[in-house]
Structure formats: structure tokens, C-alpha cells
Design brief:
The complex is a heterodimer of chains A (234) and B (208). Chain A contains 9 helices and 5 strands. Chain A is α+β, with helices and mostly antiparallel strands and 234 residues long. In chain A, 37% of the residues are buried. With 208 residues, chain B is mainly alpha-helical. Chain B has 2 domains: 49 residues, no CATH class; 155 residues, Alpha-Beta Complex (Nitrile Hydratase, Chain A). In chain B, 45% of the residues lie in helices and 11% in strands. Chain B contains 12 helices and 4 strands, in the order ααααααββααααββαα. Chain B is globular. Classes of the chains: A alpha+beta (234), B mainly alpha (208). Chains A and B meet through helix 2, helix 5, helix 6, helix 7 and strand 2 of A and helix 1, helix 2, helix 3, helix 8 and helix 9 of B. Strand 4 of chain A pairs parallel with strand 3 of chain B, so a sheet runs across the interface.
Chain lengths: 234, 208
């Protein structure tokens, strides 16, 4: 199992999903954009993803990391829930629950008029409903942390060789710690099933001038929650 | 709202991705690994029970009850749970309050992180490339698309949901709503007000 995770750990996913600050995507508001989805298969893929996660049916890197493995052009071409379909399929393949070609085979069977099989498991449904309604907060911060509120920090200039939750647009930039959110495992390692201790997560505020230079829009503030491993003294 | 029901009412031929999604669900059902009822239940949860109506109750309560507002801003998880809300993707809630001098707006530039228990599933625009790209680098331009213009001296604070913290904006109670009931107030607290891309106004309510 551990080896199966590591296989993906060096995948370069400093990808197109990391969109903060990019230009050229056009307007935010487009027709149809007000709703969460428009087609019935979309929330069902979302729900299958939830069941896969909560029933531990998948394996390998977490769903976000898997979606980030999509080639950039495919990622941009895919609709939102198409990306989720991609990640749930890959995770189910990596656990051995489905084999390549089996989804295509079922597509053929359904196209030939076969009724779609259904499955009733009341206990599973109850488990899922209970879990959907449960919160699992991150740990409180340790008593002593490296950076204190009010302190200036610099985000490390880096090029992680895999999943990260440190967007490119803050790397190398100096901000100010506002608060310590808690302690959580570093996703860069945890998503690959690698051991990693819980470490402080800081809310760090960045001045727009530090991020983007002068702007016609004046100044604003962007705050991110960043793991201690991403930060250094300025 | 059964699965079978949806399969028989296509106004157009099913797309390749739709057929693939149906096939995956069918395959997992055939293997006995995914309960069709569980899938139905998750879909129904966000279509009927969990959505911005929950967040609106939180905000309206904060508008009429200063002690609740204080609890909400200091321990959002607990204050939201007081109203019976909470769940997955709301594990670490932070509520950020708009004031005369500060306007808050939430985004997830890396994916689509969003406070499901209080807002439901995010609208397509929230998950879109342009919003994820521009919210952090040209917020006033984005706000103008939503018809929101802020005074130049208002500080805009963008919260990029880069870790497991999920944000909810507490908008300012608009003038002209004095004496309104909580239910009347809830009606003007839209989803976008709680993302930070809209401002509540008294005139949108039937009570006005």
C-alpha cells in the first residue's frame, strides 16, 4: 500500500489548477454560472466521491492531488464534476476496486438497453449521513510556535515535486502572521500516505503591493492559511 | 427523486461523460460497494436540507443578538452548531465580519473549498477559472461584475481557503431593516452576501 502511494509522490503537479493571479480567463459571470450544476449526473458523481472517501474504497493520493495530475489542457477542458469523475475513477483503480476498461464495459452494457444495477444498503446510507453531519476540527496549536502573531514571515521560494497547498502567487512573498489556526498534517506529505507530524497552520496576510505591485485598483489584503513548513524568517 | 427517474427524462442525447458517470455508479452498485440510497441521500442533502438558507439563519441571528455575534466571531463552529448546523467541509469555520471600513470576500484559488454546512455546494462561478484567478489579483474588478462598488477607502480582505479552514462572511445589516423579524432578515441574506460578492439591501425584501 505504501509503495502504491509513493509511486505518485514525485509527480510534478505545480499545475494549472493553481490559478491565483492568472489572466485571460474572461468574465466570472457566465450564463448558467449561478447554480452548482445543471445535469443530474453531476451531483451523483459528487455523491459517489463522498461514498468512496467515507467508505474508504479508494487508494493512492487524495482526490485533490489526483485532479492536479490531470494534464493542464485536459484540466481546463474538463467541467468541474468531470474532474471529480476523473479523481474518483483513478482512486478506485488504485485500490483495485475497478480495473481499467470496466467502466467502458458497463457503458456498453447500458447502451445495449440493460437496466442499470442498483444496490440497497441502509446501514451504509446511515453511516454516510452521520459522517456528512460530523465535524472533525484540526488540532489546537501547540503551546509554542515558531512564528507569533504580528511577526513578518516569507513564504519559501520553492517548486514542490507534488501536491501542495501553497499557491505559487505567495511564494517568495513577505506577509504578516495574524493568528495561528491550529495544527494539521502537511498535505504535501499526508496526501501520499507519508508520515508527517501535525504542525502549526498560520493565517498570513499579504499586502496586494507585495503580491502584485501597484494596481489601478488601489490596495487590498489577501490572507491565506499556510503550514509552517511553507514559511521562513524574512 | 430516484436514480431511475432521472435516467428516463433526457431532453437530449446523453453526453459521453454522463454515460461514463452512470456506468461508474452502476458498476459500483453491481459490486455491492456503493448504496444507491446513499448516493440519493447525499444529493438530497444539498438540494433540500443544506444550503445558504442555513448561513442566512446564522447571519440574521448575529444581526439581532450581539452576544451570539460575539460567539460567532470567536468560536464559529460552536455558534453555528447552536443553530443545528455543521458537518463535513465545515470542520474549522471562521466567520469574518464586514464593517464600514472592511469588506471580506472568500475564494479558493487552488480548487473549490467552500463552507458546505452553511452555504451548500458552491455555484459554478465560484469554482470557475476566472473567479479563482482574479479574486486575489483584481477584486474590485470582480466585484464590479456583481454590481458591487465599494468606496476607495474600504479595505478589501480576500480569504483564500488554502488549508482546512472554511470562511463565511458576516455582512453588515443594511439600514431600513430596523424592527424586522429574523425571518424577514433571512430573506435578504443571499448566498453571495455570505461569499462577499454582494451586499444585502432592504429593498429586496417583501417586507420593505
Amino acid at each position: 500500500m505504501r509503495r502504491a502511494y509513493l509511486e505518485y509522490a514525485n509527480r510534478d503537479v505545480d499545475g494549472v489548477h493553481d490559478m491565483g493571479g492568472m489572466d485571460g480567463f474572461g468574465p466570472v459571470l457566465e450564463p448558467g454560472g449561478e447554480v452548482a450544476y445543471t445535469e443530474r449526473w453531476e451531483p451523483r458523481v459528487f455523491a459517489i466521491h463522498m461514498v468512496e472517501e467515507l467508505e474508504d474504497l479508494g487508494a493512492g493520493p487524495g482526490a485533490r492531488a489526483v485532479r492536479e495530475e490531470m494534464p493542464a489542457a485536459d484540466y481546463l477542458a474538463a467541467s468541474y464534476y468531470q474532474r471529480w469523475l476523473f479523481s474518483v475513477e483513478r482512486r478506485l483503480e488504485r485500490s483495485g476496486v475497478i480495473a481499467p476498461g470496466e467502466v467502458e464495459e458497463m457503458v456498453r452494457r447500458l447502451a445495449q438497453g440493460e437496466a442499470a444495477p442498483t444496490h440497497r444498503d441502509a446501514a451504509m446510507t446511515k453511516r454516510i449521513q452521520a459522517r456528512m453531519a460530523t465535524v472533525h476540527p484540526i488540532d489546537p496549536p501547540p503551546d509554542t510556535v515558531r512564528f507569533a502573531p504580528g511577526q513578518r514571515v516569507r513564504v519559501k521560494r520553492m517548486d514542490p515535486a507534488g501536491h501542495t497547498r501553497c499557491p505559487r502567487y505567495v511564494r517568495g512573498v513577505v506577509g504578516v502572521v495574524e493568528t495561528v489556526r491550529g495544527a494539521d498534517r502537511l498535505p504535501d506529505r499526508a496526501t501520499y500516505g507519508l508520515e508527517t507530524p501535525r504542525e502549526p497552520v498560520y493565517s498570513v496576510a499579504f499586502a496586494s503591493r507585495e503580491l502584485w505591485g501597484p494596481s489601478d485598483e488601489g490596495v487590498w489584503t489577501v490572507a491565506l492559511d499556510l503550514w509552517e513548513s511553507y514559511l521562513e524568517a524574512p | 427523486m430516484s436514480h431511475e427517474h432521472h435516467d428516463h427524462h433526457h431532453p437530449r442525447p446523453a453526453s459521453a461523460v454522463e454515460l461514463r458517470a452512470q456506468a461508474l455508479e452502476a458498476l459500483l452498485a453491481e459490486r455491492g460497494l456503493v448504496s444507491t440510497d446513499a448516493v440519493d441521500a447525499v444529493v438530497t442533502l444539498y438540494e433540500q436540507d443544506v444550503g445558504p438558507q442555513n448561513g442566512a439563519k446564522v447571519v440574521a441571528r448575529a444581526w439581532v443578538d450581539d452576544a451570539y455575534r460575539e460567539r460567532l466571531l470567536t468560536n464559529a463552529n460552536a455558534a453555528i452548531a447552536e443553530l443545528g448546523f455543521g458537518g463535513i467541509e465545515g470542520d474549522n469555520m471562521i466567520v469574518v465580519a464586514n464593517t464600514a471600513g472592511v469588506h471580506n470576500m472568500i475564494v479558493c484559488t487552488l480548487c473549490s473549498c467552500y463552507p458546505w454546512p452553511v452555504l451548500g455546494l458552491p455555484p459554478t462561478w465560484y469554482k470557475s477559472s476566472p473567479y479563482r484567478a482574479r479574486a486575489v489579483s483584481e477584486p474590485r474588478s470582480v466585484l464590479s461584475e456583481f454590481g458591487v462598488t465599494l468606496d476607495d477607502d474600504v479595505e478589501i480582505r480576500i480569504w483564500d481557503s488554502s488549508a482546512e479552514v472554511r470562511y463565511l462572511v458576516l455582512p453588515m445589516r443594511p439600514s431600513g431593516t430596523e424592527g424586522w423579524t429574523q425571518t424577514e432578515l433571512e430573506a435578504i441574506i443571499t448566498r453571495d452576501c455570505m461569499i462577499g460578492t454582494a451586499l444585502p439591501t432592504a429593498r429586496e425584501s417583501a417586507a420593505a
